[in-house]
Amino acid sequence: MVNTNKLADPPGETVFLLVEDDENDAYLVEREWQRGAPSHIKLKHVPDGVEAVRYLSGEGEYGDRENFPIPNVILLDLKMPRFSGFDFLRWLHRDAVAPLGLIPVLVLSSSTEPEDVARAYALGANTYLIKPLNWRKFQDCVRMLGVYWTEHAVTPDVTRVAPGNGKLAFKDLHE
Asked: Distance between CA atoms of 84 and 133, rounded to whole angstroms?
């Protein structure tokens, strides 16, 4: 089953989880989407990979899926303390409940190192974008991501819950 929100008129809400330790970068993404991106974007922010795991696993306050919905897309920084973006990608694709690994992950990093690019893709990243240093280019990049992922791309619906246990289930995703 796929999330066909983008195919309907008007578009449904698209939830992005921003995993970013730099509060300034997080603020800039949020600000740009408030100013010029599609209005149906819902942005959730966590400061590192540990919190991203807790968010996706529904631990603690993140168990409230009204306020902390499963994202359609993850925007991931790589160089973070405690649990890096690489650690998070490894967890998502090896240890997380199966359908969570289907969520598209867009790396948004300042690293231009070829080793980082290759490692991110090897661990399951869907896209690797280098954070532009120029403010205008950063705005354009964020706006473009918002438009593409809310109005053009279709993402899998990983929010199906198995009856009675409150856990995400992989069933019905192959239909």
From this structure: 21
pTM to 2 decimal places? 0.84
Amino acid at 70: I
Nearest to 156 by CA among 93, 92, 73: 73
Q: How confident is the model at residue 159 (pLDDT cuts 50, 70, 90)?
A: confident
Please compute the mean of the pLDDT values over residues 119-123 and round it to a whole number.
98
- Assign domain 2-156 to its CATH architecture: 3-Layer(aba) Sandwich (3.40)
